[in-house]
Amino acid sequence: MPIQAVNDFVIRFANVNGSGSASANLLFARSILRMGVPIAPRNIFPSNIQGLPTWYEVRVSERGWLGALGRTDVMVAMNPQTFDKDVASIEPGGYLFYDSSRSGVPSRLRSDIVGLGMPLTEICAREYGDLRQRQLFKNIVYVGALAALLDIEIGVVESLIAEQFKGKAKLVEPNIRALHIGFEDARSRFDCPLDVRVRRCDEVGDRILVEGNFAAGLGAVYGGATVCAWYPITPSTSLAEAFERNCARLRVDRATGEKRYAIVQAEDEIAAIGMAIGAGWNGARAFTATSGPGISLMQEFLGLGYFAEIPTVVFDVQRGGPSTGMPTRTQQSDILSCAFASHGDTKHILLLPDGPGESFEFGALAFDLAERLQTPIFVMLDLDIGMNSHLCEPFRWDDSRKFDRGKVMSSADLEAGRDFGRYLDVDGDGIPWRTIPGAHPKRGAYFTRGTSRDRYARYTEEGDPYVDNMERLLRKFDTARTILPGAKLRKAARPTRTGVIHYGSTAAAMDEAEELLREDGVLVDSLRIRAFPFGPEVGAFIDAHDRIFVVEQNRDAQMRTLLMADFDMAAHKFHSILHFDGTPITARFICREISTRMPARTAPRFKEVAS
Amino acid sequence: MPIQAVNDFVIRFANVNGSGSASANLLFARSILRMGVPIAPRNIFPSNIQGLPTWYEVRVSERGWLGALGRTDVMVAMNPQTFDKDVASIEPGGYLFYDSSRSGVPSRLRSDIVGLGMPLTEICAREYGDLRQRQLFKNIVYVGALAALLDIEIGVVESLIAEQFKGKAKLVEPNIRALHIGFEDARSRFDCPLDVRVRRCDEVGDRILVEGNFAAGLGAVYGGATVCAWYPITPSTSLAEAFERNCARLRVDRATGEKRYAIVQAEDEIAAIGMAIGAGWNGARAFTATSGPGISLMQEFLGLGYFAEIPTVVFDVQRGGPSTGMPTRTQQSDILSCAFASHGDTKHILLLPDGPGESFEFGALAFDLAERLQTPIFVMLDLDIGMNSHLCEPFRWDDSRKFDRGKVMSSADLEAGRDFGRYLDVDGDGIPWRTIPGAHPKRGAYFTRGTSRDRYARYTEEGDPYVDNMERLLRKFDTARTILPGAKLRKAARPTRTGVIHYGSTAAAMDEAEELLREDGVLVDSLRIRAFPFGPEVGAFIDAHDRIFVVEQNRDAQMRTLLMADFDMAAHKFHSILHFDGTPITARFICREISTRMPARTAPRFKEVAS
Amino acid sequence: MTYLAKPKFHHPAIEVNALGLTHRDYEGSVSTLCAGCGHDSISAAIIRACFELDLQPHRIAKLSGIGCSSKTPTYMLGQSHGFNSVHGRMPSVLTGASLANRGLLYLGVSGDGDTASIGLGQFAHAMRRGVDMTYITENNGVYGLTKGQFSATSDTGSKSKKGVENLDAPIDLVAMALQLGATFVARGFSGDKGQLVPLIKAAFEHRGAAFIDVVSPCVAFNNHEGSTKSFDYVREHNIALNSLDFITGRRPIEIDAQAGVSETVTLHDGSAIRLHRLAEDYDWRDRSAASAMLERHRGEGNLVTGLIYMNEEPVDLHQRLGTSQTPLNAMSEVDLCPGSKALEAINQSLR
Amino acid sequence: MTYLAKPKFHHPAIEVNALGLTHRDYEGSVSTLCAGCGHDSISAAIIRACFELDLQPHRIAKLSGIGCSSKTPTYMLGQSHGFNSVHGRMPSVLTGASLANRGLLYLGVSGDGDTASIGLGQFAHAMRRGVDMTYITENNGVYGLTKGQFSATSDTGSKSKKGVENLDAPIDLVAMALQLGATFVARGFSGDKGQLVPLIKAAFEHRGAAFIDVVSPCVAFNNHEGSTKSFDYVREHNIALNSLDFITGRRPIEIDAQAGVSETVTLHDGSAIRLHRLAEDYDWRDRSAASAMLERHRGEGNLVTGLIYMNEEPVDLHQRLGTSQTPLNAMSEVDLCPGSKALEAINQSLR
Ligand SMILES: Cc1ncc(C[n+]2csc(CCOP(=O)(O)OP(=O)(O)O)c2C)c(N)n1
Ligand SMILES: Cc1ncc(C[n+]2csc(CCOP(=O)(O)OP(=O)(O)O)c2C)c(N)n1
Ligand code: SF4
Ligand code: SF4
Ligand SMILES: [Mg+2]
Ligand SMILES: [Mg+2]
Asked: Of A214, B215, B325, B521, whose CB is crowded by the most CB atoms within 10 A?
């Protein structure tokens, strides 16, 4: 039985990278969005520039479930290399759209799926003389065909094309022509639309579709970052690029052309973090963006930042580790190496955004926190958040908001004779006051160092001032708990002693999982952790539950390790659910794991899926 | 009341560094040792070359307690800079030996100590014309005086001088003369010997006095290390130097002068670990030695070592962190940054020697383990172990012992057609077979990389082989538990539900603490952990006790974090005892902490001491 | 591009070398680089050089960092062990490997980002230590694998694909290697195989730190107008100092029909190179002259290629260290462990 | 040595500069280096230079890495903010600081281990970026603080205190800075204050990457016979190219009674330097000539000191980036935050 589904299916495009399919696929996805139907697109790409397989998947979900689903209802198989595998991965009853110009293909089709062959290559060869054009327009042709098959309004696609090529009018017409070639051919060839299809609705609202890296880079602009030092590395490169692009638009003086920002592509990650630390020390809001290997290289400087108490921000867009690992896959596996970055006793602050919305919010907030807490702040994205487009609430900014520069002793304070000790805990919150270099001719100068020193920043090798300082740093860490974004609690319909703790990009899948569990009669309260160290609400949640599942996208239960280290409580309460194969975690996966391990249940309801 | 103590006191020398006092102080210490009395000398030195305060402390203990004690019975105050502090730190009833040539000193003396002024400067000015000689022999003169005061056999000192200058006969006589000047002057000036004194006994046996770094460097020679790549850093420098010195003596071909070792002083720690990894990959036994900042810099390579499975050994001689921290103080604060070194899911093997004896043993064993387990092995010394001389059992070596090269597929194996998959788990223990480059003209070549790959070392970006590989690495980690040095259990006289877990340089203090607790009626079983990951005996110990104290020399309870992450058990069982001011941990400190926190007790018996 | 195998270096299918190996025996996996990437031509040149030198593939170790260029060892010498290490750190890994076994030949492949940006320190120190290796930088002036950012070898004023000008001073790896004590220094161009293959052969024969900077245009990100690393630009500004023929006893000396004077240099193993001077009267034995010549051409905007400097009597790291001739990785406890008697003597000295 | 204050640079106690500051206002904490360490003389020269230039101490930021040399910022300019960062990474920290506030003067102090070993990459890249700074390497050929191992600037054949010969090729930081695009390059000797103070002054006045390599003997570990960095050796092999007088309107021009020709160079702020040519007819404006000259003297075993190269029109990092004249660290939300309206436009483009 062919799948019947309106506004609730997954379509997957199998392409070759460097072939120009990316923009056609995006066009397809945005068309559905414009019809008011929520979508969650995801890219699966290789660590290479041209010629290897790449996939693009769009989950269409009127109900608004935006996590990955781990199944394919419609396959657009454009890559001969992976054709067999692609065909094999289609859900029974699903659909296969393929280029039937090549002979031999039909024999490899499964009987339990619907084959939709269109001689794309032939059509394009007929329509286009130029080779490159054939290649490029082929992508638009299949978008046209899919519009017919899935009942996407062709006018919507047309207007998106028009918007895309605004100012390049000459490009609009041929693209629209290609679109219609596909559209008409499909209508003549197939029984359109299919039983799986899109239907206009109004579930998108004013939401936007955006990548987390763009959001975080924009957040840094709004948060007042002026110095960005970075070194290219997938999947963080587009974050620095987004900062640059937005600065170029929003921070260049109209009259003089002067830039109110400075971006340096450093020679490596060590230099990048060194520059961010130097700028932070000197009173600018500074950041770097990197991924796992960069975090490893930055360790020494991160320890300096912790101990010398330098405000700075590190965006870690996590990918599959260890080592070079799976550079184009997602994971949450840098939690420990960031939380404990560097040798010696160090503990760092992590912000854990769940998607582009919080990437923007935390991307700005991180700079306030860095200056308030005078320490490096990590914003932990991952490849899924950073490089995939997600539907999220529009960005908002309160124009009355002021930057929180933290405890900076001004030239006037110094002139007035306020006592200044760089590491003096004047306020009892563990946070000392600082001065910005150059502030005052006679007062407030101090020496910053990574060696131990007393409260007045004087070098010392004595144990007591060292311990005094290390204990103050713990007080500061406790102060952080009170000002970091709190964990988000969602209670089940009725009281339950079972809880789930999760964080970051797991959120979308978790939302859906809770719903599925509820339908199955399993009640869980859930807590989404948004920062480390944890606030009291996390302790209260753990106290209030007998069984707590900790959901993470890594092998080693890294967040659970932090929870156990931070709370003096029964470790037997924690049961890990671990997902780390590099694909985004799915709701089914979470449900299966939880169901299997619930004591009262024996047979899991949720069937196995490859994920 | 002046302190009365025979063979049970602490004497402390306050000197200026670079003044030549070190060898005189060592001479003093070894004289006591030669009288059959156990000693524990310790150096407290600044991060500087010349002119700053340095202290040398010798604990004399017939009962054989070799941990630091945190008190001074006799002070030899040779440094005007620190004189007042030094005087203040003497135990009531203690003794102060000082240079009375300077006027004004006596007025600063305390009434509750015994002052022993000798006009050292005047004596030397009288005896020596040359300025440098005055300085140098002054040190020997005070050794002579102390011999008289403490009843050290002058003949023993003389013979040590003779041994020291063997082959440089011209130096023997003036040193002996200086010794006698001090000896005679003291006898004429004071009532010798004092009530605190040394008495010949026979408690040393065949034990040796040696620094842990020397022992570890020698262990590497015996363990077959051929490649050493390092970068100077306190307190690890003397480990590499010990390797070099011993190789130069033991590994140079008599006939050709050819060296059976290669040592490279690298340009930094990243290059050092890179070379060690390159050499390990190519089949040599290789190591690097470093301290905290080096560990931070090596993180990326350590992740590669873990993931690409390269045998190599890292000696981490821990010092006070974070950052540059307290480079000449001791700490156990690199546990987490080594155990979890690098981004991504990584877990590393740590060996935890308790002193020079195990530094030698593990220094050799590490190379077998690295090849057996095909991964970096960390040997975790600390400054106390590494740079102080400790009394320990003589080194022993079984001449029938063969190097365990682990699973290396030979040229013959390959020729015979054995299936070779670099990451194939043939034996079910998670450890694959490897080949050494150049082994066979046609078979066994493979490509090593930090990216993910399949069992036959072929590059892949697919999730399943990645997970397969990551899970095999966990199996390998479990195999490690079965072959690493087991934890050492010491049971209390009667059954108890209270346990103590400790490791590394805490051992000497712990031995003594157990005895003190016993005397006070507190029974504890103790377990000294010697490796991470933990073996089943650690789990059994935790199960068998209701209350477990974890003793560590760091702030953040790093080993406790590892224990909690490794065992799924009640975290409330763990109570941390933390010592991290940079001085070695003391028995009194441990006793006080344990006593205070025992539920049944209220008033601690052990008084506060500065430590 | 397509996923089909790249056209292989042209050669008669039946050609065998002194070891009886065919060209195919020196090849590796199919390249996944972009069609037309300069790096693929360099791989082909390396394969050719190894074939012509009759090197035993399994006696070569090929190491690299991270980048498109650093991927290429997978695409050559399938019978050699390979090691794709971490970004910018090939030199240290190779140094360690070389310490472990002085009996293999070491080929280090890197990119300009890998060598001149993150890896500059390791590059420099490997050169000054005289590690016996052939170090090839596939220099395209950009980070290919991360999509086209400028690298540190990018010339001042060179334009990115988006039209942005590079403003920083470029690092000239050849000048640097020279200054740092490399004993064989050359530059090639991926588009001139005839010059490149003998340079690689000579480097392989050199027993010391041999460095070849090979300009290798990135067709995806740095082959446009305004770039000084495009095929066109390099062709126009290439000053070939000399061309080489590599002479082994077995192969007849092919005299190139080129202008200039010739000179034959005998190498340590009896093979020889015949050097045809092309550009000017220039002495490749004189390091100062080489420096000055590079500096002069740099001022004129030229790119000098060919053999730039060679020290005929290099002293490599192993010679400096006095390491034994037997490879260290071939020693057992018999060679390495001093035994219990020596240990007892040490114990005695510590009492 | 004693713990007493080191004898301070000699000056009349009452001398005040244009700001009314005394020499003491430019001093720092008491040095804890070894008595006689060359580094202390360099500190004294820096103090003197700042005093004579009438620099406001609080407008200077002094940064360093780790080592005896890197400790010295504590011993000077007590009213300046200082930053002892991590080993070998001063250049990046300073670059960041400079980006944050282009209004301060940046002094980077480093050692030869700190710069040429672990820090070579950062040194190189700071030079090629044209960071506006005065970068001083206190070069003693050894790691002082870790007790005397060879550093990468140690000459081939130079002997350690224990008599071991260095076998690796040395890194000549001056030649490297030159090649990397530094726009002010000089070498001094800690034992020649007369030459050093004006060099430091000129470097401070230079608006670009100014590098001074100062040979600074380590009396504890590298001042013995056989070392090429000992006081005696340096004195014997020092070829002073030129000497400088620094001329501000206020101070009379003191004409040195030295041989050679003089030339006056006006700097961007109207001050000038008078350069007395000492050694030879040498044009410090010509980078190629400088390279060749260095290479030649290196061959002859000489150590060239003085101003080696200066570009009178440097373009520094801020100019390249087009950063605003207002320091970035002085901007508030008004300057930096685009506000909700701009955000709504962005939202709109994402629908
Ligand atoms: C530590 C680290 N930082 C960054 C990266 C990302 N990265 C991969 S390749 C590359 C640059 C490669 O440039 P180049 O060496 O010139 O090689 P090309 O691709 O141009 O041949 C970078 C920055 C990485 N893999 N590791
Ligand atoms: C990452 C790191 N590695 C090693 C060290 C140890 N260390 C401190 S100073 C120093 C060398 C200093 O040499 P140099 O820069 O020449 O300074 P000098 O003491 O000779 O003035 C080293 C290796 C360190 N502090 N940090
Ligand atoms: S991106 Fe450039 S360097 Fe990389 S494979 Fe393509 S052409 Fe070659
Ligand atoms: S060790 Fe050398 S460099 Fe360090 S302070 Fe002493 S003389 Fe100076
Ligand atoms: Mg490149
Ligand atoms: Mg030095």
From this structure: B215
Which stretch of DSSP H or E encloses residue B369? helix B356-373
pLDDT at C244 > cutoff 60: yes
Q: Tell me which amino acid residue D281 is.
A: D
Q: Are A555 and A582 in contact (CB under 8 A)?
A: no
Contact yes or no for B301/B270 (Cβ under 8 A): yes
- Cβ separation D128–C320 shorter than 8 A: no
Residues D290-303: what's their mean pLDDT? 88
Residues with Cβ < 8 Å from B251, sequence gap 6 or more?
A: B221, B259, B260, B261, C336, C338
Of D128, D171, D287, the CB nearest to C152: D128
pLDDT of residue A363: 98
| Residue of D167, D88, D72 lying closest to D125 (CA atoms) | D88
- pLDDT confidence of residue A577: 57
The yes-or-no verdict on residue D166 having pLDDT over 90 is yes
Q: Which residues of C touch B262 (CB under 8 A)?
A: 99, 318, 321, 323, 328
Q: Is the dihedral of CA C139, C145, C147, C152 positive or negative?
A: negative
Q: State phi, psi for B276 to the nearest 5 degrees.
A: -65, -40
Angle (CA) A198-A204-A205 rounded to 5° is 145
What average pLDDT does the segment C115-128 reach? 98
Lining ligand 1 with CB less than 6 A are: A 231-233, 269, 293-294, 297, 324; C 66-69, 87, 111-114, 138, 140, 142-146, 151, 218
Q: Which helix (H) or strand (E) holds B306?
A: helix B292-308
Considering only CA atoms, which residue is closest to atom 2 of ligand 3?
A: C218
B142-156, B251-265, B497-511: lowest mean pLDDT where? B497-511
Say if residues B212 and B355 touch (Cβ distance below 8 Å).
Answer: yes
Q: Which of C43, C120, C138, C146 to mutate to test the pocket of ligand 1 (most atoms within 8 A of CB)?
A: C146
Pairing of strands A39-44, A53-61: antiparallel
CA distance D276 to D293: 18
| Residue C33 CA, ligand 3 centroid: distance in Å | 6
* C-beta atoms of C118 and A267 within 8 A: yes
Residues lining ion ligand 6 (Cβ < 5 A) are D 111-113, 140
Min Cα distance D118 → chain B (Å) is 5
Residue A129's SS3 state is coil
- Looking at residue A522, its amino acid is V
Across D323-338, average pLDDT? 97
Considering only the C-alpha atoms of chain D, give the largest distance between any 2 of them, rounded to a whole number of Å: 77
- The tens digit of pLDDT for each residue in A245-304 reads 999 999 999 999 999 999 999 999 999 999 999 999 999 999 999 999 999 999 999 999
* Pocket perturbation via mutation, ligand 3, pick of C6, C31, C32, C34 by most ligand atoms within 8 A of CB: C34
Q: Which residue has the higher pLDDT, C277 or C204?
A: C204
Strand order in the sheet with C242-247: C242-247, C272-277, C262-266
What span, in angstroms and rounded, lies between the C-alpha atoms of C127 and C106? Answer: 14
Given pLDDT bands bounded at 50, 70 and 90, which one contains residue B522? Answer: confident
- D34–B51 C-beta distance less than 8 A: yes
Ligand 2 centroid vs D7 CA: distance in angstroms? 26
Q: Angle at the Cα of C267 (from C261 to C273), degrees rounded to 5?
A: 30
pTM of the model: 0.95
**A23-53 residues labelled b (16+ CB within 10 A) or e (exposed):** ebbbbbbbbbbbbbbbbbbbbbbbbbbbbbb
The 10 Å Cβ neighbour count of residue A460 is 16
Q: Distance (Å, rounded) from C-alpha B328 to C-alpha B235? A: 7
pLDDT for the residue D144: 97
Asked whether the beta carbons of A114 and A155 are under 8 A apart, the reply is no
